[in-house]
Amino acid sequence: MVEVKRTHIDEESLDRLLGLGSSKMGFYAEVKQKIQELEAANQGLRAKSSELQAVFDSIGDGVAIYDSTGHVQHRNHICPRLFPRETIVGSSCGRLFHPEHPLSPAHCPVERALAGESVEMSFTTTKESTGQRYFDVTATPIEDSGGGNRALIFLRDVTEKRLQELQLLQAEKMSSIGLLAAGVAHEINNPLTSVAGYAEALLRRFRDEAALRDDPRLDVFPKYLDVIIRESYRCKGIIDCLLSFSRKSDGTMENVDMNLILREVLELVRHKSRYEKVEIREELQPDLPLVRGDAAGLRQVFMNLLINAHQAIKGTGTVEISTRGDGPVVLIQVKDTGCGIHPDHLEHIWEPFFTTKSVGQGLGLGLAVTFNIVKRHGGEIKVESLKGEGTVFTVSLPICQE
Asked: CA torsion 240→242→243→246, rounded to 10°?
């Protein structure tokens, strides 16, 4: 029989046997608990970081944070769309706001924010790819734990807003012209009516009274009276067209006869053609389908295109305007024999404020406004041009489906 020897193990021996005497297991347990707490804290930080990044990226403006040395530390996804190179992480503020000067503390929003100042300002950029663009900038200092500052920058593209403001200004100006034209038309129409009426009365007397009709000294008088009557009514027609063009648009869509719109606009530019030796040719399709549109806006579209066509011709030349139905759309074409558009400029002509004209000759808004009006009507506008040979603008507008 085997005798089992019982050994008494006291608490101290048990702690020693289990390694607790050296506090190793307690140390490991404490470390494990700390690790778990850190992991939980990291998860919370990651969640907060994801939330902040989502908020950061949901902002529709470009947002960038510059460190205390004036270099990009972080940016949201809008910045690369606006300034892909200038806002790369590590880029200096000068690359965007003052590329010509290393430092510009008086004008740079980043440098002013780093100095503790909140700034609101505007600036413009001009690039071959985007043309001239207008931006509003808000710069706010962010205080660091070390006592220094970083800069929070908001970049908002306000080019379209500026275009709309200028369009509104133009609309208000046209409204003022409309009021003036209405008053002038009333003052001119009354004398013109009298002139035309008396001329018609004299012409009737020549036809009814043999003594006048047979008098050889008065042979040319009927011809002169015909000219007076014709030109008087022509002046009245020009005034009516001017009133139609300058009348402020209320945006109402209606069935529009494009041939009628074009004839009204052509009546206003014919005098320009006559004095500048530019021949106007019309080829308007009879029974052209109606389009659904804003008559005042469409008048502006083709006034802009015809004015541009005339300005492109130096000396003598030809402007051709034609209409035709083409399935679900009406096509209107304005063709000139002018100087043409340089190939490098073709892709930029629709951009607001892009112009090759000299200062004072234009703001570069005509074609931008034209493009927007055509798009608002659900149509398209295309351009073909050869330098030195002329330009063709083609506008397509959907026909009425009623």
From this structure: 160
Are 392 and 259 members of one domain? yes
Q: Which domain holds residue 208?
A: 159-248
Beta bridge pairs of residue 319:
280, 336
Contact 125, 87 (CB under 8 A): no
Tokens 């109402």, located at residue: 252
Residues 356 and 316: beta-carbon distance below 8 Å? no
Long-range Cβ pairs for the range 249-252 (8 Å, 24+): 249/171, 249/294, 249/295, 249/296, 249/297, 251/294, 252/294
Q: How far apart are CA 113 and CA 117, in angstroms?
A: 5
103 and 236 assigned to the same domain = no
The CATH number that applies at residue 237 is: 1.10.287
389 shares its domain with 365 = yes
Same domain, 308 and 399: yes
- Relative to beta strand 62-66, strand 278-284 is unpaired
Backbone angles phi and psi of 122, in degrees to 5: -125, 155
Sort residue 259 into left (φ over 0), alpha (ψ -120 to 50) or beta: alpha
Q: Identify the helix (H) or strand (E) that includes residue 396.
A: strand 390-398
Residue 1, domain member (yes or no): no
Same domain (yes/no): 389, 266: yes
Q: How many whole angstroms separate alpha carbon 204 and alpha carbon 367?
A: 50
Convert the pLDDT of each residue in 209-240 to its tens digit. 887 777 788 788 888 888 888 888 877 777 77
Cβ neighbours of residue 39 closer than 8 Å, sequence gap 6 or more: none
> Is residue 322 a contact partner of residue 373, using CB atoms and an 8 Å limit?
no
Asked if 257 and 368 sit in the same domain, the reply is: yes
Q: Are residues 149 and 231 in the same domain?
A: no
How many structural domains does the chain have? 3
- pLDDT digit string, tens, across residues 296-339: 888 888 888 988 888 888 888 899 999 999 889 999 999 999 88
The pTM assigned to this predicted structure is: 0.50
Q: Which residue has the higher pLDDT, 42 or 19?
A: 42
Q: Are 233 and 214 a contacting pair, CB within 8 Å?
A: no
> Are residues 345 and 385 in contact, defined by beta-carbon separation less than 8 angstroms?
no
DSSP state of 136: E
**Contact between 340 and 356 (Cβ < 8 Å):** no
> Do 199 and 216 lie in a common domain?
yes
